[in-house]
């Protein structure tokens, strides 16, 4: 399996690893079939993601996509973060092998799950804003 230099760099030196104790939003997604689990923590100030951390249990591609996803949304508005798709993450990493595309999907869903948690904590229904999150909290194994 061939990985880009960027994937290897984010795997070897992942950015934003850890957790935020007083996070405004926490999202956990996973795919029980492959065993990858991503947990993302957001600190949000005036609709801007001021800090983001992640913890990922999974393969190198899962770690690399988590790392890149945090880099793509740090310092961005919530609206900009919601525009980050798995394709955005893959392009930023100069591609992923086809069997690892699901890792980029989990990274996108981790962002959305953390933002859904943020809205829920504020008493706002996240579904109209975020949409459906397939792999959130193991509700769906497809």
The parts where pLDDT drops under 50 for at least 5 residues are: 138-142
Tell me about the biggest sheet?
3 strands, antiparallel
| SS field, number of helical segments | 6
Helix content: 40-55%
Average of per-residue pLDDT values: 92
How many beta-strand runs? 3
- Give the DSSP E fraction (strand runs of 2 or more residues): 15-25%
Give the radius of gyration.
14 Å
Based on helices, strands and strand pairing, what is the structural class? alpha+beta
Q: What spatial form do the alpha-carbon principal axes imply?
A: globular
CA(first)-CA(last) distance: 24 Å
Order of helices and strands: HEEEHHHHH
Spatial arrangement of strands, main beta sheet: 1-2-3
Structure at a glance:
42% of the residues lie in helices and 19% in strands.
Protein model, in words:
The protein is α+β, with helices and mostly antiparallel strands. A three-stranded antiparallel β-sheet has the order 1-2-3. Helix 1 packs across helix 2 (60-73). The two termini are 24 Å apart. The protein is built from six helices and three strands, in the order H-E-E-E-H-H-H-H-H. Helices cover 42% and strands 19% of the residues.
Core attributes:
142 residues, 3 strands, alpha+beta, single chain, 3-stranded antiparallel β-sheet, 42% helix
Provide the fold topology.
Elements: H1 5-12, E1 25-31, E2 36-45, E3 48-57, H2 60-73, H3 78-82, H4 86-92, H5 101-121, H6 127-130
Antiparallel strand pairs: 1-2, 2-3
């Amino acid at each position: 399996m061939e990985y880009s230099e960027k994937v290897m760099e984010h795997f070897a030196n992942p950015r934003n690893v850890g957790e935020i104790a007083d996070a405004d939003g926490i999202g956990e997604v996973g795919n029980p079939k492959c065993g990858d689990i991503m947990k993302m923590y957001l600190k949000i100030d005036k609709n801007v993601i001021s800090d983001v951390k992640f913890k990922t249990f999974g393969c190198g591609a899962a770690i690399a996509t988590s790392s890149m996803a945090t880099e793509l949304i740090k310092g961005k508005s919530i609206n900009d973060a919601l525009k980050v798709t798995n394709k955005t993450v893959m392009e930023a990493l100069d591609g992923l092998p086809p069997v690892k595309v699901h890792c980029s999907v989990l990274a996108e869903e981790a962002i959305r799950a953390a933002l859904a948690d943020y809205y829920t904590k504020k008493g706002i229904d996240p579904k109209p804003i975020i949409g459906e999150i397939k792999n959130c909290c193991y509700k769906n194994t497809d």
